[in-house]
Each structure stands twice: as structure tokens, then as C-alpha cells.
Design goal:
It is an enzyme of class 1 (oxidoreductase). The protein is an alpha+beta fold and 465 residues long. Helices cover 45% and strands 15% of the residues. A five-stranded mixed beta sheet has the order 2-3-4-1-5. Strands 6-9 form a two-stranded antiparallel sheet. Bound molecules: 2-oxoadipic acid (OOG) and nickel (II) ion.
Length: 465
């Protein structure tokens, strides 16, 4: 079959994220309210910042600013994870990064399936933060075995979805009809089921061990637990959520508000208590409730180098040692003040961030640089002479402390459980079936390639890694 007749993986991903958005807005009306608020604040922000609007038009992203940037699911078994990898591969989404959340009292480890190339990211940047439950972190052996048995008995993909994945792998792609069916079938895996596959008693035992275990084990599949559009002003959306009748989490995760945004800032509304029913002994249903689904927003900044990330981590730790944000929001103002104060130690202009080796940038020749014939010179000199310009590379990944904050605020306000830190990337990658892409190596390669493209003007041999 000629490859021209295949629908591109980018188009399949775009169709999938649109279908998921429509489904989730219908399932969780509060999410639709959040989307509308984000659109309104984005519009206000653009009206006040014509330069920003121009830049978005120039990069062809204006009409997509309010679209979802990510979602999240939680899987129960290695087999589910391995199959999910194959599903996402068809949509051009590959596992990047390893996140150990055990340190934060959440019994999962995770990766983010996402597009990696520049073109793919600009076509549609949708990614899915995907966690795998770690039953090994549950002390109660009997419960652990029962949970494993329940998970072993469920099937989260439709037969048709599996068949289409196999066909796509064999043929090297899907035609338009196959792609449409694929999106429809795969969507089923992410759907909410208000009828649990366990009894109320079992739910309670799982829930008592950890709320997250109940969320993963009690249902037919890994319902999408949130979607996350991009906002141009996260502080404003956070402030205005209550006016729209939605309850924001206590604080915005990540770095403080800055002139030069770094990494990722995110916040959400608190998960809703939803009515579910549990199978009882007489083959009827017992009514109960479950809390897991919410809506989130994000704002991204420059990707940091290992050195920049170490500084970020250090400053965040310092902040949290001074004020640990309480889930009920009682010390939110003090936390934000401490965050802003301590992060003064992180340079806040692009030149300083770049020269200190804290962030990743792409380099391009200016018009003057393209006309230059004077022989290769040092990067700094070339920038100084206006031959080369630089732009921050946007951070496309996640942050473990922030992710833990998002998890926690959506698992209830009670004290976090403590686990001993036990990252296990080797086991995760074995379960996944491939290794995850190292995010730092990836950003560094993008930066390096942009420097190479300036050869003739800059002496790339002397540019430090
Ligand atoms: C995932 C939480 C992590 C983020 O944006 O950091 C996440 C979850 O709650 O399953 O989505
Ligand atoms: Ni998220």
C-alpha cells in the first residue's frame, strides 16, 4: 500500500485530542466552564499585549492557544502500559522522561507520551501524563494480591482497538477510514464508568490503603482524569475560578510569576465528588461516591539545563522548607511570598539565563549574520555583533514536585502518606517495553543543531555543551 494514503500520526493525534476534549466536556461540565474562562482570559491578555498576539500569529499558533496541551491517566498493569505505548506511537506520541512520585507519597511512577519533533509539536502538542500503579508499595499483602487479581481480569482496550493497532503496525499506518475508527475505539479506553467493578467493601479497603489505588483498581478502565488547556495568564485564571463557581487548588505549582517564564506553572480545580455505584451480593448496586476528575491549566516557559534545573530544585526546596503549602489554602499567601522572594536568586532576563548556562536556547543567524564573510568567531562575540540571535526553547515536559501537588490536591486534603523514595526506572522501562527519551539530552540536541546551522559565523567547536 502506498504510504501517501496513510493519515499522518500528527493528524490522528489532533483528531484524538479533539474527540477527547469533546467527551470530557460532556462528562465533566465544570471542565467546560474552565475552558470558557481560559478562552476569556486569553482574549483579554491578547487585547492588552499586541506584541504577544503578533508573535502568536507569526508562529501560526493563535487559533490553537486555548486547545488542550495535556491530559493524564493512571494504569494498573505492565501489560496495560505496554499496549498503551503502542497505541500512542500510532498518534506520534513517545515516552519522554521518568517521574518517580513515590517520594511524594503517591504510589506510581510515570512518563509523558508526547510528540517530539518541532513540526509535530506545533501541529498539535497534546501529551498524556501516564502513570503506572505500584502495588509493590502497598504493605498489606492480601490486599495487594486481591488488587492484582482484579486488574488481571479487566480489559481496558476494545478488541477492535487492538486489531487496528496491529494493522497499523503491520502496514506502517492507517488510512483515513482506519484512523477515524482508531480514534473512536481508543477513546473508549478513556471513558468514565460510573459503575465500579468492585464491591463497596472492596472499594473501601482499596481506598483506605491509598485513594489512588481505589481510583485505578475499582473501574473498568483508566478514565481520563483531567485535561489541561494553555493559559496566557495563569494567575488571573486561578483568581477568577471561584467567580465561575469552581474551586481552585490552594496554590499554583512550579516557579513564581516572572518576566522570563521558566519550566512550567500549573494549577487545577479540585476534583469533583461524583456518584458511582458498586456491585453488591444480591446482584444489585450500592450507591456511593468517588473523587478523581478535575480540570487543569498550564503556562510554559524555557527548558532548563541540568544546572538550571538544579538551581530551580534548590530554590523550590528552600521555599517549601520555609512554608509548606497546606492543601486547604490557609497559608497560600505566605507560600507565594516566600516563593517570589527565594526565586529572586534565579536570574530573570534572557541574556543572564543564557550566559549562566541555566536554560536551553536556539540560535539563528540574523540578516547581518547571513551576509557575514569575516570567518568564524566565538558565539558571544557573534551575538554581541548582532550576527546571531537566540530564542528560549519551550519546556515540553513535567515536574515531579508539581505533579505530586496536582495528584495530592485531587486526592483529598488529608495528610500525604509517606513512602520511602524508590525510583525504579529500569522496571518501568521493562514494563513499557522501551526506554524513555532523556529530556535533557533531547533539548541539548535541539540547541546543538541550531548552533551547527550557524557554522560559518560561529566557531561551534568552541561552544561548550
Ligand atoms: C497526574 C498528575 C500529573 C501534571 O500536570 O503534572 C499531571 C494525575 O493526577 O494522574 O498531570
Ligand atoms: Ni496535568
Amino acid at each position: 500500500m502506498a504510504t501517501e494514503s496513510f493519515t499522518s500520526s500528527d493528524d490522528i493525534r489532533a483528531a484524538f485530542s479533539a474527540a477527547m476534549s469533546a467527551m470530557y466536556r460532556e462528562e465533566v461540565p465544570a471542565y467546560g466552564t474552565l475552558m470558557a474562562l481560559v478562552a476569556q482570559v486569553n482574549e483579554e491578555t491578547l487585547a492588552g499585549q499586541p506584541a504577544l498576539r503578533e508573535r502568536l500569529v507569526a508562529t501560526d499558533t493563535l487559533d490553537r492557544i486555548c486547545e488542550e496541551r495535556h491530559g493524564a491517566i493512571r494504569l494498573g498493569t505492565p501489560e496495560e502500559l505496554a499496549m498503551m505505548r503502542r497505541v500512542f506511537a500510532i498518534m506520534g506520541m513517545f515516552p519522554v522522561g521518568y517521574y518517580d512520585l513515590s517520594t511524594a507519597g503517591v504510589p506510581v511512577h510515570s512518563t509523558a507520551f508526547r510528540p517530539v519533533g518541532k513540526e509535530s509539536l506545533s501541529r498539535n502538542p497534546f501529551r498524556v501524563f501516564t502513570s503506572l500503579l505500584r502495588l509493590d508499595l502497598i504493605n498489606d499483602e492480601a490486599l495487594r494480591n486481591e488488587a492484582a487479581a482484579i486488574l488481571a481480569g479487566r480489559k481496558i482496550f476494545t478488541d477492535r482497538a487492538v486489531a487496528l493497532v496491529e494493522k497499523a503496525e503491520q502496514d506502517g499506518g492507517l488510512d483515513a477510514d482506519g484512523a477515524a475508527q482508531f480514534v473512536k475505539e481508543v477513546l473508549e479506553t478513556f471513558r468514565w464508568h460510573n459503575q465500579a467493578i468492585v464491591s463497596a467493601d472492596m472499594y473501601k479497603r482499596l481506598h483506605d490503603a491509598h485513594r489512588l489505588i481505589a481510583d485505578v483498581v475499582s473501574f473498568k478502565g483508566p478514565h481520563i482524569n483531567h485535561l489541561t488547556p494553555r493559559t496566557l495568564d495563569i494567575d488571573k485564571v486561578q483568581d477568577r475560578m471561584p467567580e465561575e463557581g469552581i474551586a481552585p487548588k490552594a496554590v499554583v505549582e512550579g516557579p513564581p510569576t516572572r518576566k522570563c517564564p521558566i519550566l512550567l506553572r500549573q494549577t487545577s480545580f479540585k476534583a469533583l465528588q461524583e456518584s458511582v455505584s458498586f456491585r453488591n451480593d444480591t446482584n444489585g448496586w450500592d450507591v456511593g461516591s468517588h473523587t478523581a476528575r478535575f480540570g487543569e491549566i498550564e503556562q510554559r516557559g524555557v527548558a532548563l539545563t541540568p544546572k538550571g534545573r538544579a538551581l530551580y530544585d534548590q530554590l523550590l526546596n528552600e521555599t517549601r522548607a520555609r512554608v509548606r503549602p497546606a492543601a486547604d489554602g490557609s497559608n497560600a499567601v505566605a507560600y507565594e511570598a516566600a516563593l517570589a522572594d527565594i526565586f529572586k536568586k534565579f536570574p530573570d532576563d534572557w541574556g543572564s539565563i543564557r550566559r549562566a548556562g541555566l536554560g536551553y536556547f536556539t540560535y539563528t543567524l540574523t540578516e547581518k549574520g547571513r551576509a557575514y564573510t569575516g570567518g568564524e568567531i566565538e558565539l558571544e562575540a557573534a551575538i554581541g555583533q548582532g550576527l546571531v540571535q537566540f530564542d528560549p526553547i519551550v519546556y515540553e515536559d513535567f515536574l515531579p514536585v508539581s505533579a505530586a501537588g496536582i495528584f495530592q490536591s485531587n486526592l483529598g486534603d488529608d495528610a500525604a502518606q509517606e513512602f520511602v523514595a524508590s525510583p525504579n526506572q529500569i522496571v518501568f522501562e521493562r514494563d513499557l517495553g522501551v526506554s524513555v527519551l532523556d529530556e535533557f539530552a533531547h533539548y541539548s540536541a535541539i540547541e546543538r543543531a541550531s548552533l551547527e546551522a550557524c557554522s560559518g559565523v560561529i566557531d561551534t567547536a568552541v561552544v561548550a555543551e
